[in-house]
Amino acid sequence: MKKFLIIPFLFSVFYFLSFTCSTAEEINPSAVLNQRAKLEEELKGLENQIEAYRTTIQDKQRESTTLERDIAIFDAKIGKAKLEIKARNISISELTGDINKKSETISSLIEKTEREKASLAAMIRKANELDSVSLVELMLEYKKLSDFFVDMDSFESIYKGIQDSFYEIKETKSATEKEKSDLEDKKTEEVQLKSIQDMEKKRLEEAEMEKKRILKLTKGEEQRYQEILNARQKDAAKIRSALFMLQGSTAIPFEKAVEYATLAWKTTGIRPAFLLGVIAEESNLGQNVGKGNWIVDLANSRCAKQRDAFVQITGELGLDPNQMPVSKKAWYGYCGGAMGPAQFMPTTWQLFKSRISAVTGNNPPNPWDPKDAFVASALLLSDNGAVNGNYAAERKAALKYLAGANWSKSAYAFYGDDVMELASKYQSMIDILNQ
After folding, report:
1. Are 339 and 326 in contact (CB under 8 A)?
2. How far apart, in Å, are the Cα atoms of 180 and each of 88, 95, 103, 379?
3. Please, which residues have CB within 8 angstroms of residue 268's CB and are 6 or more apart in sequence?
4. Among 219, 280, 391, 401, which residue is least crowded by beta carbons within 10 Å?
């Protein structure tokens, strides 16, 4: 009679095991892979088109200024911006799909774990029941001694199989959760970059308006366009007095900005127009992030070093830390706290303090002082290799300024392009002032 305690139970365990050992990846992998391949192919095509527009802009900027040339540049910039927005949306869509897939896998693994636990618990309960029966009694229930040993071997094998499966599921679930977390980090980065598209869209609209304005003024005639350019070049006084906007500091006249950039150039070799491009882009990004406060935006325990450095910097300068503007903490991140026009984090500023003072004479230097901030930016850009002076070296240095070791990621390409376009604009203005 005791035999019936084992045989039906073995069948039930086989059922549990066959049910639980089904793969967790039952989410139509073929359809997922096809969709992913389609998105990646579309994204690659967009990136190739964007690179073609980038090349067109660079080539056209080397040509003599004509109406045809400038309209071609406007068209390329507009087309490039539209494709960049579309590419980022595809990247976010792709990451969202991957995250959803990982979430479904994790849910499946959790369900499978619960089934494995139930199987294991049943095995343990049955083992306890069998322990209450003597081995002799149990063996007497079998007509053949060999049947007894077959069933006992099966029992032990299934028991071990469930245990091994349980641990395998646990490890798979842990690995999948890590993969999901990494994907979520990538997505939050893309979403944050997407928020910058508000700025990109604004520039796109401005470019379209400028194109229409030029065509309206010139009626498509080259001579009239050259007359407009000449009139602009004679207006150096307006250029000198135009305000150069800064993040975390009061705007200064463009002429003063050129003075500070020239001071930095004499020490670091960083081209003034390029430095102004970086400072202007940081200001644009800072306006997008908004104004923060150190108490709120450095509150996370992971920001302790930044917070301590910020208190030390403001203390040395005799400034009220509560009154000094910093960048807001990004919604996905831990720390805000970037300071002034250069948007240096407090610990980074501490590393550059002595080098800044050696150039400006301000000891200690002030992150919110434009002169100190310009020199700080130039020093970092110099460290990033911009002193080579060519387009590629400057663009790479700008990207490192934003993203450090991740500078080559295509998601950040917009920053380098924006800086170089701004540098071209400021170089033209500087050339007029130097005439």
Report:
1. yes
2. 20, 10, 7, 38
3. 375, 378, 379, 381, 382, 387
4. 219
Q: Which helix (H) or strand (E) holds 326?
A: strand 326-327
DSSP string, 202-230: HHHHHHHHHHHHHHHHHTT-HHHHHHHHH
Point out the least confidently predicted range of 317-321, 383-387, 414-418, 431-435: 431-435
Phi, psi of 134 (to 5 degrees): -65, 150
Rounded to an integer, what is the distance from CA 49 to the centroid of its chain?
Answer: 22
Here the tokens at position 260 are 């500070």
Residue 42 in tokens? 């579309």
- Side-chain half-sphere of 37: how many Cα atoms within 13 Å? 6
The two structure tokens encoding residue 1: 């009679």
Q: Which CATH class is domain 236-433?
A: mainly alpha
Answer for the pair 378, 389: CB distance below 8 angstroms, yes or no.
Answer: no
- Name the packing angle between helices 413-433 and 391-403 (round to 10°): 120
**Which residue in the block uniquely carries the two structure tokens 């070296």?**
393
Task: Count Cβ atoms below 10 Å from residue 350 Cβ, excluding itself.
Answer: 17
- Are 380 and 341 in contact by the 8 Å Cβ rule? The answer is no
8 Å CB contact between 404 and 262:
no
**289 CB contacts (<8 Å, ≥6 apart)?**
327, 328, 330, 336
Dihedral Cα 428, 429, 431, 435, nearest 10 deg: 140
Burial class (CB in 10 A: 0-12, 13-18, 19+), 314: buried
Q: Mean pLDDT throughout 53-60?
A: 83
Share of the chain above pLDDT 90, in %: 29
Cα–Cα distance for residue pair 74/56, rounded to 1 Å:
11
State the span(s) of the chain assigned CATH 1.10.530.10: 236-433
Question: Would you state the pLDDT for residue 274?
Answer: 97
* Cα angle, residue 285 at apex, residues 274 and 388 outer, rounded to 5°: 20
pTM check: above 0.85: no
